[in-house]
Structures are given as structure tokens and as C-alpha cells.
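## retry 2 of 3
previous attempt timed out at serialization; input unchanged, resubmitting
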Amino acid sequence: MRFRAASAWVLLLAGIAAAQTSLPSNPAAPSVESEKPMLTIPAGTRVPLSLKQAISTKTVKDGDPVYAETAFPFVVNERVVIPAGTYIQGKITRVQRGGHVKGRAELLIHFTSMIYPSGYTVMLGGSVENTPGAEKTSMKDSEGTIRQDSEAGRKAKSAAEGTGTGAVIGAVTGGGKGAGIGAGVGGVAGLAIGMLSRGTDVRLEPGTSIEMEIQREVTVDASRVSARREVIVRND
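## retry succeeded, writing output
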């Protein structure tokens, strides 16, 4: 009898344990993922950057990497969302050199990732909104294309200088008639030089100020946003 009673108790306890393990998890219980303090960087946010390397339409090609660094912290609801010194990585997506006769040099950059001082990396979509630190350039379109300023005045000046030089030489060698001929020859030569030379390339020096616009909303883990660089000391 005692053996049968003990066996019954064992079976009863085993059934209770199995029932407990098969109970569904509480859907109201918060997951580890949802407990993370998240911060949102809204689309349209503009972040000032400092370029880390030289970029020229003369040497770069599609797909080349671009490196920049945030120059000032960005704050949302009194919380630093993007600390100063955060690295921004991107790439060249289109490059065009200035033409011989027409067509100005153009450069299109897209930013793809953001690396925090802690090493935390976030993917993003960003474009160039403005280049306040670049001389003789302007923004062409909403995509963020950087375009070299027009050089029509410079080429006209070259042709005029050629005309004047030819006139002086013609006057010295052939009097008034020679001056007219020399002016024509000089003008043609100046125009030819302008047509043979390419337009000036877009060139951005290291340290150039660039304004990046974040094109879509970005969510970051607030616990991994650090305002200081972490230094790893290795003992060999």
C-alpha cells in the first residue's frame, strides 16, 4: 500500500511540473528589447560635419568612401543624441568633371552610417544639404549634388586678354592694320585655350564644413550613446 501511495504522489507531482512548464508566457511581461531606452532622430535633422579627407572630382570615382566627423552635439529633449566627435561614413555616388566647352564639375555624396565614440554603429540615410566651408561651389538640387560655380566669366576674360595681347603685337609689327589682325588672332587663340581646358574641379579640403541632412527617422539606443571617446589600453 505504501508503495502504491508513494507512486501516486510521484505521478501527481510530475503532472503538476509538466503543467507549469507548458503554461504560455505572460504576454504582458516586458521583453528585454522593449526595456531599452530608445531615442529618435527625426527625419530632416541637419547636422554640421567636418570633412576628414580631401575630395576632388579630378581623382575620386563612384563608390569611393567619404569620412566626416560631427562638429557640434545634437540634442533632443535635453538629451544628447549625436555627440560631437561622432564619425559619419558615406560614399561617392556620382562624380562628373567639368567639360571643355560646357558642363560644370559635380559631386554627389550619400552618408550611410554613424559611429558613436563608444563604437556603437547606426545605419542612416543622409545627404549634403549645404557646403558653407567650400569656396566657389553651390548646391544643384534636393539630392545634395555639389556643383562648381560657372566659369563663363573666366573663359571670357581669357579670350579678352588674348585679344588685347594680339592687338599689341599686331600694332608693333604692322601698325593699325596689324593691330586689327592681331586682335582677331589673339581672340581666336584665347577662345581656343578656353575650349581646350577643362572646367575647374570641385575640391573639398580636409576640415571643410558640410551640413548633412538625415533623410529618414533614425532610432538609437540611449544606453549606448556616449559623449566621450573610449580608450582601450592593451597590456602586452
